[in-house]
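#struct-pred

JT: dropping the chains for the assembly here, can someone run the whole complex?
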Amino acid sequence: MSFASETKTELCQVMPQDSCCRRAECYGMLLFGRSFSENSVSLTTESSAAAHRAAQLTAETAGVIVDISTSLWHRRERKSAFTVSVSGSGQREAVLACFGHIKTEINLRINRANIENECCACAFLRGVFLSCGTVSDPQKDYHLEFVVPFMNLAKDLSAFISEIYELDLQPGLLNRKGSYVVYVKGSEHVADLMTFTGAGKAAMNLMQVKMLKEVRNNVNRKTNFETANIDKTALAAAEQIVAIEKITNSAGGISILPEELRELAMLRCRYPEMSLRELGATLSDPLSRSGVNHRLQRIMDIAREL
Ligand SMILES: [Zn+2]
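RK: done, full complex below.
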């Protein structure tokens, strides 16, 4: 099951006690469905639970009979889509009238009278999400969106969300293939919105995925850092060996090095992987790390002058 379907299934388990909230949720579902007019009142969803909830709430709120039809929208993956619709113009008129809309309405807007009670905001938004919303898999992105067929309706939704005091967020709005997309980005904002509508468990899953991703990134960053450090040591050793070889291949050979540098030069070539501290401990007359470093610098200087 996708993360979006999981979220919708969780939302469908929430049943508001107050009739005003059930009505507000029904309004959100129908208004933000595929069509909400005299000719057609319908919504299509891939969630069977959402479809049945829309049918139940519409029957309860407007007292009309609702049809649910199933079609295969993704043949290969055998995914079904459920279309909820109200047949008969008389019944559709009843639905519109029930929410204070008239049948000749051209410019569809949110009728705030249906969501006047403060308690109804989350129910309404849950309905809108069940009808036209989706949320990305948090493994990929933190993105929640509502795909709305009309611009003014999308603007109304965006304004409604930005007015919700508990959420404190300003959704974005974009045009995609003739539809208007109201979207929210960022793990915190997406999780807040999900929790607000009633999908607290899915929101927690999202934050958990985020935490795991952060831990994994930190581990990766640390590993990269260590690898870089090892590379730096190996690179320095390689440079020292090149310098020593230059000296041994020169006319004077290794004997041009002062005596106290010769043993170190030979050890360096024999043990390229040793750290400076280890080299110092291996010398017949042991030396500190900085002492070894100083002598290697002198060897490098001599090679440079050749
Ligand atoms: Zn309410």
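JT: nice. Strands lie at 35-36, 41-45, 67-74, 79-86, 133-135, 143-148, 172-176, 179-185. Residues 18, 20-21, 24, 117, 119-120 surround zinc ion (CB under 6 Å).
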